[in-house]
Amino acid sequence: MSVASAAPTPNPEEGLEYIRRRGLGALADRMGIEMTEFTAERAVATMPVAGNTQPVMLLHGGAYVVLGETLGSMHANFHAPPGCVAVGLDINATHTGSATEGMVTGLCTPIKLGGSVAVHEIVVTDARGRRCSTIRITNFYKRIAPDATSGQ
Length: 152
Fold this sequence. Notes:
Blueprint lengths: L11 H11 L3 H6 L2 E5 L4 E6 L12 H18 L5 E12 L7 E11 L3 E9 L5 E13 L2 H4 L3
Antiparallel strand pairs: 1-2, 2-4, 3-6, 4-5, 5-6
């Protein structure tokens, strides 16, 4: 399915309920990532700079990537075909700014939602709205055992 043919989520709370049920994972929890919006068209999350810095007190480049992968993978899984789970094939990030305090916000939008792959772009901005990082992630839809998709 292409991005244009993606059916919108009828109720905005449906996407956030999906996140509440599934959880973001231990690493995202440890880093303080919080999903603030989750629809068929986009996902938005925040992450604190504090606790996720490198020794010179800038947000660690890997922290941007964790935020991007969390957003892109969760959104890809939301669109996964029945019996499949999204698994990462490729991720890259270009850091163009440095967050030093407050929160950063990641905005994830699909570039391609296909039957076998999903590609997302995540733009991370600082508290002043300046772009700090642009991340692109490609996920493959892998067929798995039926009980594994239910999370049980």
